[in-house]
## 1
Amino acid sequence: MEGRACRVRDFAIGSIMKTQQRIRKTITPASYIGKGAVLFCVQDSPGLIAESHHHLYHEFDYIMEGRGEYAVGGKIFQVKAGDMVYLGRAIQHRRSSDISDPLVMCNLDVEDYMLPATVMEKMRWPLWKFWDFSKIGDPAFTAAIKILVKLMPGNGRERNLNGRQWGKVASGLTSILNNEWMMIGERSTGLQKLATRIRMSPENHISLDKEAERLGLSRYWLSRRFCSVFGVTMIEYRDLARIDKAAKALLSECESIEKIGLSLGYSSKSHFINTFRRFAGCTPGAFRKLHGE
């Protein structure tokens, strides 16, 4: 009898997970242009999976309750109440909630023009970032999150933010993203300069051996150090920077996909398409069709 009960239980759990897999497409964000800054309360159902997707706005997720998992830029990390996740523009990501302790979070979607920073500052922002909120020593950012939690609407509703309150929130969000770059400089000016060169000219070829020699490190230690600071390998960081630049080119230029790929340093059209699909979740052509005018 016990064995039969276990099989029934396993079948029930399997059925639930298959159902969650089937409904996951219903929560993938629709095209989001022209709304500025929008605040949501997101309450996941048990075991829910938000399938891999990307968007053209900045996303800030403050985890209020529950446990779950994010997959961003080829990396997987666990989240819990009190964690903060930032997701940059055009970066593919996936979220899943624990089946017994689903996520409840304060979700803010912000279009680029709503964040007061120079082009150079935004160029230096992390492409994505995960923080333990309790360890963030940025009072402006802490105040911004407290305002967002206070203003957060009920589940299933949204609130457009503007005016004086939005000014304080925007200042706090910009502060943490700018400070992240300053903290990298405090940890290693060499890595900061390397990241600057990659972000400014991602189309240029980079060599782990040559960069290690430049910094006076072994190839092994540079690889480990870079990954510990940025959360991705040096090549992945370069490819993410290329995809960020490609996304802008696909929407603002009439150049062919092949020409954009070659200008970004890819050896062939297929190489560009495959890399773009890996990080943005779709082909360059599909991206242009989805988000273009």
## 2
Amino acid sequence: MSKMKSLFEMSKKTVITLACLAAAVAVIGTGTAYAVRAAAERNSIGKATAERFALADAGVDMSSALVSKAEFGRENGQYVYEVEFVANGVEYDYTINAADGAVIARDADGQMPGAVQSNAPAVTPPAATSSVTTISAERAKEIALQHASLSAADVNFVHSELDYDDGVQVYDVEFYKGNAEYDYEIDAATGIVLSYDYDAEDHQPTAQPNDSATTPPADAQAPVDSNNAAYIGVDRAKNIAVSHAGVALADAAFQKAKLENDDGRAEYEIEFFKDGIEYDYTIDAVSGTVLEYDAERDD
């Protein structure tokens, strides 16, 4: 009897040991899977590049698209990015190879003439990878000037340099016109304007007949009087900002619109969103002049 009991206890210990080993192997296996996935994502083209390849394949400009999803995952034994966006009333769904950017699958709902068809054969994106430049520095300068509605004769270029931003190859273009500084970031593969910034340096507000209304307060950071009749008002400042950006007032989602004091100068700080793009404006409170602005896609 004691021998049977001993054998039973030994079997029980063996089962427990094997269960513990199985659990340990499962944990190790899970950890290895996570490590492999993390390494694959680090070596992938990146979310931003996957978005650009999908947009380029659909023939959609980034400025007119609202990206709702760009996720890294595994499908049919390979790592991919699932990209979803809406443009011109059409909803697009893309599966992009995470290693080389090839389009694996695409689908479009509410299709317009010429829209991509569901389950069409995979194609190679127009720019093979983020390491290949498809536009020149001169072309990047032309794109920036066209966006700013200026000509080469109007400006003095500081630089047009190739750089990387989050693994994406871009051109940083900087130039001046008078006392205004322009900075652009342009996708080197597609030529899309990713972000831009304008700064009217050392701007002086327009003088008003009532000197007391425009004299900066003794304390450069003191609050400004929003009821000052010399100021254009926050509603007018908002209209100036959206008009400059080419956005309808009704379409802008305002995050900030307030009067502030910057080194003794009254300014309106305006921030709003439209189609996934964040716009920031600084407007002179007296003259309504746009002192600074920038626009950047909100990732």
